[in-house]
Amino acid sequence: MKSIKVWDPAVRLFHWSLVAAFTANALILDDDTKLHQYVGYVVVGLIAFRVVWGLVGSQYARFSSFPPSVTGATGQLAEMATGRKHIHVGHTPLGALMIYNLLFTLAVITLSGYLMTTDMFWGVEWPEEVHKISITWAEFSVVLHIAAVIFESRRTKVNLPRAMFTGVKVLPETQGGN
Amino acid sequence: MAFSSRISRRKAAGLLILMTAQVFCAVFFVTDVISDYQEVGVDAVAHTHLYIETLATLSLVLAILFEGNVLAKMLRRQAHLEASLNNARAAVQDIMDEQFEQWGLTPSEQDIATFLVKGFSTAEIAELRGSAEGTVKTHLNSIYRKSGSRNRTEVLSLLLDCIMVTGDKSAPTQA
Q1: Do B111 and A74 touch (CB under 8 A)?
Q2: Where does the record place a coiled coil (chain A) (predicted)?
Q3: What is the DSSP letter of B131?
Q4: 3-state SS string over chain A?
Q5: Final residue of a domain: which of B79, B96, B129?
Q6: How many Å apart are CA B126 and CA B133, to the nearest integer?
Q7: A67-96 pLDDT per residue, tens
Q8: Chain B partners of A137 at a C-beta cutoff of 8 Å?
Q9: A84 and B130 in contact by Cβ < 8 A?
């Protein structure tokens, strides 16, 4: 067993705050309340923080450590298709694509949601349509994200949900080089 | 037929991007169909349009699953060939893959059998696949069992035999 510290406290706090805020607005709070709007502003703040942290944060939090890569993604899919497993210490290529997808989708959700509250777009239909479609996509993405985390944890024998709580990835001895 | 792995890598990436776009559409259509059913309620039985919409959505979902299968096969083949740009080698790999399928080898076993043919030791295969040696040995044993052979040499003989036979068959058509 080899333990590596990967997720700094800021990354973990960001992740779970976003989970709480998204769950509250998507499943619990009434859409027409002021509170729904405030939680939306919190999400904007969280996304802005994550973007800044992606530039100046710790090693595995930086965007430069998980650049979006289609060839990386097909490489990871090939590992799944052949039953090979080589551990990625930070984000995996598919995981990275999911992060960019979620950050972008949440930005679209909050922007369209904000537009719905402005006088300028009062009674205009498209911000609401965009808001709805992007929420559906975000909900699908979240379900896919959770399913993929469980699948990858089982495939690679690395407990990924626990790493997002403790910040430490525990890697099996046979993997990661030797 | 045989094509260079650089081209097939680009094809796989293209297919992945296409699938992502289709998944986005499918999510939209599926939720749309569901909300349509909720809107019309029991009257849904009389809505021919809804039936067609449902069928169209379902076929899109099926198409995505089919593409996923094609992508997995493509990636496996590519992984087996690795950096080989040699057409003859690709053709031999195709014949071997077909034989692996006939033996009923799992994707992991097919991968290990390919490494075996290339002459890698058990320890080397374990390192290449990032798994324990014991796991590779278990896979090797089921490869022997499924192919009806007792050791590496016999597996290689069987494969060599089927490559030569296939070569014979294709000879007249090529002439």
Answers
A1: no
A2: none
A3: S
A4: CEEEECCCHHHHHHHHHHHHHHHHHHHHCCCCCHHHHHHHHHHHHHHHHHHHHHHHCCHHHCHHHCCCCHHHHHHHHHHHHHCCCCCCCCCCHHHHHHHHHHHHHHHHHHHHHHHHHCCCCCCCCHHHHHHHHHHHHHHHHHHHHHHHHHHHHHHHCCCHHHHHHHCEEEECCCCCCC
A5: B79
A6: 5
A7: 999 989 999 999 999 888 888 889 999 999
A8: 24, 27-28
A9: yes
- Given its phi and psi angles, is residue B104 left (phi above 0), alpha (psi -120 to 50 degrees) or beta? left
Instruction: Name residues whose C-beta falls within 8 Å of residue A116's C-beta, 6 or more positions apart in sequence.
Output: A127, A128, A131
B17 contacts A70? CB cut-off 8 A: yes
Enter the pTM of the model: 0.81
Domain of A133, in residue numbers: 2-171
Q: Are B28 and A136 a contacting pair at CB < 8 A? A: yes
Of B71, B111, B126, the CB nearest to A83: B111
Joined tokens for residue A108: 């679209």
B47: left (phi over 0), alpha (psi -120 to 50) or beta: beta
| Closest of B143, B138, B170 to residue B154, by C-alpha | B143
Backbone angles phi, psi at A68, to 5 degrees: -65, 125
Same domain, B165 and B106: yes
- Give the minimum alpha-carbon distance from B73 to chain A in angstroms, rounded to a whole number: 8
User: Are residue B105 and residue B126 in the same domain, yes or no?
Assistant: yes
Query: What would the pLDDT profile of B91-139 be if each residue is shown by its tens digit?
Result: 788 888 888 999 999 999 999 999 998 889 999 999 889 888 999 999 9
Domains contained in chain B, number: 2
Query: Does ipTM exceed 0.90?
Result: no
- Partner-chain contact B27 A82, CB within 8 Å: no
CA atoms of B175 and A80, how far apart (whole Å): 41
